[in-house]
Amino acid sequence: MRFAVAFLAFVSVAATVAWMATQETTYAELAPIFAAKCVPCHSPGGSAPFSLTTHEAVRKRAEKVGLMVASYVMPPCQLKSDFGELCSIPRLSFDEIVAIRRWSTSGAPKGRPISVKPPNRKTDWRLGGPDEVLAGGSRVRAEGGAYWRAYIIRIPAGMKNIKAFDVRPAYPPAIRHVLLSIEPEMEARMTDSKLGNDGPGFGTFGSLGPDTQNLVGAWAPGYYKWRLPRGSAIPFQKDRIFVAQVQYNPTGKVADGKFELALYGSRQRENRVPQWLSVGTKAIEIPPVGRKTMRAIKPLTEDIRVLAVHPEARLAAREMMLTAKLPNGNSRKVFGGSWDLYWIGAYNFLNPQRLPKGTMLELTIEYTNGLDAMHTPPQPEKIVYGYGPKDELGWVHLQYIPAK
Question: Does residue 370 fall inside a structural domain?
């Protein structure tokens, strides 16, 4: 499904490009688009592996850039929501995609001299001065695909709660996503491995396990930062410890995968504590070299305000959609679109969204075993639910506070 949609979109863009082929587009005209929607990551010190701040830099990769935007691979945040943008870097419009593709297939003309000013990458934290700054991470492999590693980080004795956090990678291109949770210390210590080829920490496969109530939130470049509304915070309990799961992206050389974790606490005496609710099922069976659609429904028993959404699926998932069917008969898309495990994380809404009691949350996930596979060959046996590397998941977790 994902690739059929992408192919039709590519054909549509290609047809429009051919129709408009006589109208020359120059880099000078496209520079504002690159500045707003590419350069925040594709610039010196950014999370992308190369810069796109000058005509020469883009011209060298013009064909690749054109193909990536025409096939909706870049910018990577392609999931959509009726609650607003899920990423701080907006998606490209159809007209912008057509213009970039037309330019990339017509010699990448420069036009008048112009360059894009790189963003001011301040060394200060985006949320201001933190209450505590902790550290974690290890070196990143030189080769191979993206992978996950989790690190135990002790909670400072003086902090009573957390209302926000931010992450600053030592080498931004190597870190794609960080998921933070608060775990019982004994359980986390038992999971932690001895030093190995990847250094400290322990390997995961993109999930910290079934207990979502331990989750705090997520960080990724280009996403909205995790910050609870005023009057809300997560309290720290005795014998608890942070676990930070990092998604690493090998860049062709051994890289520094360390990061700083900035913590912000609430000074209010009383705070609402955010909670998690989950929509999904364990009844997953995907036939060998076949397709399967999974559906799950969950009614809301109270009014809530949705703060963040954390989807969980693996390599066989291709499309995911969570819809809120309101008591008045209207429907709202909480989020949905194409799924790629290596580019999906948790999403924080810029403004908490209210859903009333009686709303039906409906989750649909399309799976494929080997058909249209992006990262894995077909498995000769069926794929079932589980947390192993060959298993599959089907959950969406919503972080919320009661809407009182």
Answer: yes
